[in-house]
């Protein structure tokens, strides 16, 4: 059975995560299928892409497949990591991407949802940033992404507490463009997508790229960049990182020593 479903109708592409058994984890397999589908849909007349889970999903996506996180000593979110690759692909896709969110969103899946251009959620939506729960040093582009969207204070709270943000709080904090009743979610999302397909795809594509370039226009001098990479290395080389992954796989609470 395919772990994602793909559809193109009236210039609106839809990618539906279809791996509920494993809570739509962003495994290499799911990400590669998503990237292939985006490529195929682009060959059609797709003007908007919607990314969603199956109707009634309790979990939109459980985030990075923890089984695929490298053991200590290697950057778990490096430039070529499949998750980081798909985030870049969505952010640079020359058409609007809408995250239609039913259910809880975890870790890297929050970054995926927020890499989309518009987020539409319902009362079952929630967002939980988990690096500190697993001992992962999140990456620079991801942290900047969160800062730009929700502001430093809410970003800090999400990263430090690793607790879910409710749909209402997510809407108040700017993670959701719209918060609608779960029964209206699908129609609302597709109506909004349809309204976009009526506008100039060239103008939209250029405006999206302008916003992406301006939002990431944060000059970082080489010393600062190297300091950040050094700081992140102390985390992914740490015993805490190994313990976080081991605890997850053993389905127990991690006991972090701080080194
Ligand atoms: O054990 P089986 O084979 O039955 O599979 C179980 C889970 O192991 C699996 N699963 C996952 N496998 C790999 N990576 C995951 N992230 C993951 N999440 C779940 O799915 C099967 C069903 O899981 P259950 O726990 O039994 O399902 P349920 O009781 O409904 O709970 C659903 C949630 C999503 C609440 C629960 O599975 C959970 O808390 N999953 C972990 C969510 C999480 O912490 N994700 C962040 C992963 N890390 C990242 O994205 C980044 C690296 S970072 O941390 O930096 O943001």
Structure description:
This protein is of the alpha/beta class. The chain has ten helices and ten strands. The protein has helices at residues 28-43, 82-92, 108-115, 131-134, 140-161, 167-172, 185-197, 201-215, 222-236, 239-249; strands at 4-9, 12-17, 48-53, 59-61, 97-101, 104-106, 118-121, 126-128, 165-166, 178-179. A six-stranded mixed sheet has the order 1-2-3-5-7-10, sandwiched between helices. Strand 2, helix 1 (28-43) and strand 3 form a beta-alpha-beta unit. Helix 1 runs parallel beside helix 2 and helix 2 (82-92) packs parallel to helix 3 (108-115). (2S)-sulfonatepropionyl-amino(dethia)-CoA binds at residues 22-23, 25, 59, 62-67, 69, 76, 106-108, 129-131, 133-134, 136, 138.
Task: List descriptors.
single chain, 259 residues, 2-enoyl-CoA Hydratase, Chain A, domain 1, 47% helix, 15% strand, binds (2S)-sulfonatepropionyl-amino(dethia)-CoA
Write the SSE topology:
Blueprint (H helix, E strand, L loop, with lengths): L3 E6 L2 E6 L10 H16 L4 E6 L5 E3 L20 H11 L4 E5 L2 E3 L1 H8 L2 E4 L4 E3 L2 H4 L5 H22 L3 E2 H6 L5 E2 L5 H13 L3 H15 L6 H15 L2 H11 L10
Parallel strand pairs: 2-3, 3-5, 4-6, 5-7, 6-8, 7-10
Antiparallel strand pairs: 1-2, 8-9
Helix pairs in contact: 1-2, 2-3
The structure holds (2S)-sulfonatepropionyl-amino(dethia)-CoA (YZS).
């Amino acid at each position: 059975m395919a772990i994602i479903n793909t559809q193109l109708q009236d210039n609106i592409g839809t990618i539906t995560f279809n791996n509920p058994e494993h809570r739509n984890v962003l495994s290499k397999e799911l990400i590669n299928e998503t990237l292939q589908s985006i490529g195929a849909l682009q060959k059609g007349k797709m003007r908007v892409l919607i990314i969603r889970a199956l109707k009634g999903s309790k979990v939109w996506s459980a985030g990075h497949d923890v089984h695929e996180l490298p053991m200590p000593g290697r950057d778990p979110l490096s430039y070529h990591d499949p998750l980081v690759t798909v985030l870049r692909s969505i952010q640079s896709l020359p058409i609007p991407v809408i995250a239609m969110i039913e259910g809880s969103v975890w870790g890297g899946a929050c970054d995926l949802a927020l890499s989309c251009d518009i987020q539409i959620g319902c009362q079952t939506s929630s967002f939980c940033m988990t690096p500190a729960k697993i001992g992962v040093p999140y990456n620079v582009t991801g942290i900047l992404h969160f800062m730009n969207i929700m502001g430093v204070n809410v970003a800090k709270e999400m990263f430090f507490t690793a607790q879910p943000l409710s749909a209402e709080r997510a809407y108040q904090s700017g993670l959701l463009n719209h918060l609608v009743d779960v029964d209206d979610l699908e129609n609302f999302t597709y109506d909004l997508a349809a309204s976009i397909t009526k506008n100039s795809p060239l103008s939209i594509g250029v405006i999206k790229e302008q916003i992406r370039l301006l939002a990431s226009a944060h000059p970082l001098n080489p010393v600062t960049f190297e300091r950040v990479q050094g700081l992140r290395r102390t985390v992914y080389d740490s015993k805490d990182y190994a313990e976080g992954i081991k605890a997850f796989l053993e389905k127990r609470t991690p006991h972090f020593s701080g080194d």
